[in-house]
Structure formats: structure tokens, C-alpha cells
């Protein structure tokens, strides 16, 4: 009988990230589960019946965008060449007024262009975004998957119709910190915390196969009050490495948070480590991760209606060969 890694953060060997990551990668690896040619990973859990059932959750007709803004007043600081979007007008109303656009009979127009990293604001990580010891999703060599021409195998364009399903909000911050509704930086959310939040919120938040789970920590709410203050790459509450087993056995299709990095920061080790849960769930489990989602209006609506599931449409842009995509997720309740 295979011993499963502990789901108690107190049991982590904080001096051995390599071993702790390897144990969870081996225990929760989905390589070959959907065939050797698979490019979707856990998005395979979403089927037509799941989407039909999700559509039945629309009762109020309330539409909520879960996107942060895409503008120069964003969280990015230049780390790994990630900048905030640069939006430039190539034709303006002034040009139209002056009649210098060359159009006939008085018609004028405006055009614009935007330049931005694909992970600069609300986004999905693609399966080609993270590797584990040089291996990509489904046991492929990383260098055979992503080259200077882009992701040749699991490019984000393959998911352009995938992210439509039942969404479930787990407002962990409101459950654990009802006074502030915000978790403190560095708080590691455990599988027990997720289950306790489900129990407190009720049956509408029970998580099932093919769902996309959105976890609210309250970190983005703080940025709106105090400014970015290290939001991109700094300290934050987030999922513990020990939640890998929960993420695997629930058979969810994806998970998103209101933080920059999805998992707890600083990470849970006393020696150098970087995003260990990413290393387990993307290349080994095939799980799609959403980051920097704005969950404030959704949380208000869910608590008011006392209902925490909804129809979710969060399609990626079909950017050929990309390893991530900006997104405007839409929840309909």
C-alpha cells in the first residue's frame, strides 16, 4: 500500500523541499491518464453534461467580472521582464477632428495597440508554464515542448473552449477571519481549511469533478485599500504544498486565487525554494492555475444570496504557442 504524503503542514521537512516535492509529484501524477497525446490535463474532467448542469445555476442573471484591470497602474515591478500593460493610441479623436486620417465624407475613427506580458494581470497558467526537473506535462521533455517558437505541444490555444463549467467560491478568508475577512501574509491554507470553509458555506460549495474552484484570501482587497505593496511576488496567504492531495482527489478542472502566486508566500521551507506547489500540480498533475483574480464583487454576491456556486466562463485567448493567457473570467449567478 502506497503511503500518501501528509496533509499536515507541521509534518513538512522544512529543510528538504526536493524530497517533499518529489513525494507529492509521484503520489499525484496524472501522466498518461488521458492518453500519451493529451494537451488538456485536468480540463478533461469537464464534459458536456457538466456544462449543461453548470448552466442551470443561472437564476438571478447577475453577471460578475472576476478580472483585475489591464493598465499601467498594475502590480508588476519588472521581475522576469514582467511589466504592466502599455496601451497606445494609434489614431485618435484629435486626428479625426483635424481631418488628417484620409477617410472620405467626414468619417473618422480611433485605433489602439497594447503591449503586455501574458501573465501581467488576471490570467491562466498554461501547462507549458512550469517544468519539473526538465519534464513537462504528461512526461514530455521540456525542451521538446517549449522552444523559442513557443509551446509546440500544449500551447494555450488548445484550451480556447475549455474553461466553461461550474465555478465554486471558497471564501476561506471570510470563514477563518470573519472580523477582517482577510488572511494574513504567509498563512498556509490547508486541506482542512478548505473542507471547513465548504462545511461553513453549505452544500452549494461542495466541490466536485470538473469544477473550477476560486479561493478568496482577501489579498486583493487589501491592495485596493493600501496599494500594491509587494502584491506581485511578495508575501501572501495561499495554498499549502500539503493541499496537493486535495487538489488531486477532488478531480477539479482548475483553481484560481486572488493572489499573484496561488500558493503561500514565503513558501514553507527554511532553505531556498520557489513555488513548490506549482512544480507539483502543473507538470505532474496537469492542473490549470488562475492567478490575480478579482473575487470581491463575486464574494459579496455569493454571501448575499447564500449560494457559492455559479456558471463560470473564463476562456483563454487562442494565442498560438503561448504558455499563459490573460482572461476576463465571468461568473453568472
From TrEMBL:
It is an enzyme of class 3 (hydrolase). The keyword Repeat does not apply. Its EC number is 3.5.-.-. Pfam families: Cyclase. Keywords: Hydrolase. GO terms for molecular function: hydrolase activity. InterPro entries: KFase/CYL, KFase_sf. This is Cyclase family protein. It comes from Microbacterium invictum.
